[in-house]
């Protein structure tokens, strides 16, 4: 089984791909893990600005997704 995980809950945009093999003793292999941080963008405001974070997720998600799938 291969799992695609997408995280956009706050100020990071992340995509991971994990392969799981075995049923009784499963083994997990991380095939890709890409993260785009927004720390530098939000630091002048002293915290996360939701509207800014949302726009950055829209911009970053296709890039992070592509990097995870083709890395």
Can you walk through the features of this model?
The chain has 71 residues and is an alpha+beta fold. It has one domain: ATPase, nucleotide binding domain (Nucleotidyltransferase, domain 5), CATH 3.30.420. The chain contains two helices and three strands, in the order βββαα. It has helices at residues 39-42, 50-69; strands spanning 2-7, 12-21, 27-37. Strand 2 and strand 3 form a beta hairpin.
CATH architecture descriptor name: 2-Layer Sandwich
* DSSP strand content: 35-45%
In terms of structural class, how would the helical and strand content be classed? alpha+beta
Mean pLDDT: 95
For the biggest β-sheet, the strand order reads: 1-2-3
Could you tell me how far the N terminus lies from the C terminus, measured between alpha carbons in angstroms? Answer: 19 Å
> How many DSSP H or I helices?
2
Number of strands: 3
How would you sum up the major sheet?
Answer: 3 strands, antiparallel
- Give the helix level as a range of percent: 25-40%
CATH topology group = Nucleotidyltransferase, domain 5
The CATH homologous superfamily is called ATPase, nucleotide binding domain
What is the molecular shape?
elongated
Order of helices and strands: EEEHH
- Domains (count): 1
Question: Which class in CATH terms?
Answer: Alpha Beta
């Amino acid at each position: 089984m291969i799992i695609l995980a997408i995280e956009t809950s706050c100020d990071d945009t992340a995509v991971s791909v994990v392969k799981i093999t075995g049923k009784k003793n499963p083994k997990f292999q991380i095939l890709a893990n890409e993260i785009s941080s927004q720390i530098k963008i939000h630091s002048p405001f002293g915290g996360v600005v939701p509207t800014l974070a949302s726009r950055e997720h829209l911009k970053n998600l296709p890039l992070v997704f592509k990097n995870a799938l083709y890395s």
